[in-house]
Amino acid sequence: MAKAYIFLRPSGAPLAGQNLGHVGWGFQLKNGLVNVGSVENPGGSPVAHPGNTGFWQKTVNNPFEEMGSRVSYHPRYDFYKEIEVVNFNEDLALSTVEWVSQEGYIAAKANCMDFVFRVLSGYGANLPDPSQLGNWIPNDWFNKVQPENYYWIMFRQFPIDISMYEDINGHGEC
Predict the structure, then answer these.
(1) Could you say which of 8, 27, 140, 159 has the lowest number of CB atoms within 10 Å?
(2) Residues 136 and 142 sit within 8 Å (Cβ to Cβ)
(3) Burial environment of residue 158 by CB neighbours within 10 A (0 to 12, 13 to 18, 19 or more)
């Protein structure tokens, strides 16, 4: 058994007065370290060519420290979900990360959410397919990922009961 993570920055991808959200991945390697990364799209353009997508990845001891920090190559992430994966495939996930590094960015079909889905599905996580949701909003996709509880990175030991909070749009979810 191993762990996969989806990291969320709800304030990411502002568009027409709404924050669509931004996600990154994490998955546990056989040696206990965790590969984390994302496609940041720092220019905010609906299309970015390969090499200009803000792709980054890193292998770390503590994914919460990395994702909860603001560094030169990515802003801070706020929340995460932890997914237990029984039959994990580290090699497929790593080759998918390499593939993502070569891809361009297209807001409606090759965005941060799509890349996180591909990497973690390759790893073995059972995730909702973003192409089947009828929208491409990372905040909404994060809410649909099981388990329902998510964690605030700053206080990662405390699960958040989503029924107690409203999201940035006031819909009762993150």
Answers:
(1) 159
(2) no
(3) exposed
Dump the DSSP string for 54-123. Answer: -EEEEEES-HHHHHTS-BTTBPPP-EEEEEEESS--HHHHHHHHHHHHH--EETTTBSHHHHHHHHHHHH
Say yes or no to pLDDT of 124 above 80.
Answer: yes
Q: Which residues pair with 14 in a beta bridge?
A: 19
Query: What is the token pair recorded at 47?
Result: 């299309």
For 64-110, what is each residue's pLDDT tens digit? 989 988 776 777 899 999 999 999 999 999 999 999 999 999 888 89
Position 171 pLDDT exceeds 50: no
Q: Report CA-CA distances (Å) from 106 to 14, 60, 151.
A: 16, 28, 29
| 164 conformational bin, left if phi > 0, alpha if psi -120 to 50, beta if neither | alpha
73 alpha-carbon distance from chain centroid: 15
Report the distance separating Cα 147 and Cα 125, nearest Å: 12
At 40, the amino acid letter reads E
Cα-Cα-Cα-Cα dihedral sign, residues 126, 149, 24, 155? negative
Q: Phi and psi at residue 88, in whole multiples of 5°?
A: -90, 150
Of 139 and 96, the structure prediction assigns the larger pLDDT to 96
Which of 87, 165, 88 lies closest to 119, judged by CA?
Answer: 88
